[in-house]
Amino acid sequence: MRLPSRAVMLIAVAALPLALTACSTGSTTNSGTGTNAKPAKAKDPNSGLLTGTQLKKALAPASAFPSGLALESDGSADSGGQFLSPSSPKTGKPDCTALESTSWIQVSGYKGGVSFAQNGYANKTEEVDQEIDAFQGTTATDVMKALRTVAAECATYTDSDEHATVKLTGTSTAGLGDEAYTMTLTSGHWENGTTLIAARSGGSVVTVLSTAGGDNGAASAKKVTTTILSALKK
Fold this sequence. Notes:
Layout: H1 52-58, E1 70-71, E2 77-78, E3 115-122, E4 127-134, H2 139-153, E5 156-158, E6 165-172, E7 179-186, E8 194-201, E9 204-210, H3 218-233
């Protein structure tokens, strides 16, 4: 099961704060100095974040993916050179089946960052998807916390496609970015399991899904994640 690319979602462009220039009225203050202070310039909440165009360049290249997989053109998308409006997190029980889909970061309750880039490679039986989302402030840390909660809530759930029982195991993963969490999905009705890795680098969250390889996609998912994190550090 695959969710639609974020390219088909409504994109709201966030307006950047404008600095206001104070105008002199010609009047004098009580002290007689005639000086009017200019209002402080609002801090840009997107300062230091990468745009979708920049994040696209940090996505792992074809060489980082297993041989035999081809780029899926309908799964490639990014937010371009402008930032999106931040979305409020959705509360309530997560849709566990979304963990099997592209843009699975949305199972955290967050639709995504103020900028993003994504694509995926696949053949008839395997797929590897990658996405980078940039968040304002400390939201990236909140997303990681939410994903850990999802792992606990979705420890066992029913696959909507085959109505099969899926088991999820999750663990913190050292050596990937500022923090990382890995989830493995398995089912007796599947030929192979799925590995999901979420890794934070500053205000960006990298999410990778892989079903490629006999190890439930673990090695290929880690390789793509490591490649992206290295690119974000440059």
